[in-house]
Amino acid sequence: MAVAEDAGSTGHRAAASSGAKRPSRLLRNPMSKIALVPMIAIALVVFLGGTVWTIVYSFTDSGLLPRLDWAGLEQYDRLWSTRKWIVSIQNLALYGFASMIGTLVIGFTLAALLDRKIRFEGVFRSIFLYPFALSFIVTGLVWQWILNPQFGVQGIVRGWGWESFSFDPLNNPNIVMWGLLIAGLWQGTGLVMCIMLAGLRGIDEDIWKASRVDGIPVWKTYIRVIIPMMRPVFVTALVLIASGIVKLYDLVVAQTGGGPGISSEVPAKYVMSAMFGSQNLGQGFAASSMMLLSVVIILIPWAYLEFGGKKRG
């Protein structure tokens, strides 16, 4: 009887505690939420506020200083009728497409090779990742020397006796973007390689054992099994690559300065030239708003792929 009474009292206490009203989700851990207030305020004021401020003043006729002298769509009309801006968009599209494909292919290939448990893997991983630790200014200056026709690849090969050899991409308007692409791939491939290697290391070893038992070639296993399983890894890598492409600036300034002529202009350099070179803030704000639009176009598909699929599941 005593045991039954104890069990009954315990049950009543549990029911009473469970029936007590729990604090709402908003009121749980109040100190942690208070600690987030400064960060949220900074994000709203600096990032969101700065974005709205830029968009608003892109519709003004601001010159050296911002002023609320409304000009409607005049800045955008002038922007899209300027050949320099059109060339910069074309260059960014060419560089972006080639950089995205090249970085993914080279990065995944290097990761697949390192995933075979080769000797001195840590040494090779450090070597491939090292360029990412350098700034784009340093990378641009290094590759400016490497591609210099007198001291770089062309000069070395001609010194070996091939006098007719020609490799001078930075001074050729038709292929200057490919010279920039070489430097961009050299720096950005290491990070993608590490991301892909982490994804490959998360693949269950039983999948490889099953493919070997079934006699499936390694390359077919990668294409039909491994790569589809690594879709989130590829999406993350694509977002990182795309964000770096949109803000491409340092590499161009260090290697070519936008030349020859305007053949290597990019949107970020156009913004800096308009705001601080031509002292036309309205034009720079309009170009910045168009760059923001391109970032939104990138983020929306990423958010849909990352979160939309999970909700449907």
Automatic annotation (TrEMBL):
InterPro entries: ABC_transporter_permease (IPR051393), MetI-like (IPR000515), MetI-like_sf (IPR035906). CDD domains: TM_PBP2 (cd06261). The chain crosses the membrane at residues 34-59, 92-115, 127-146, 175-200, 221-246, 285-305. Gene3D superfamilies: MetI-like. Keywords: Cell membrane, Membrane, Transmembrane, Transmembrane helix, Transport. One of its GO terms (biological process) is transmembrane transport. SUPFAM superfamilies: MetI-like. Residues 1-22 are annotated as: Disordered. GO terms for cellular component: plasma membrane. Its main location: membrane. Belongs to the binding-protein-dependent transport system permease family. This is Carbohydrate ABC transporter membrane protein 1 (CUT1 family). It comes from Pseudoroseicyclus aestuarii.
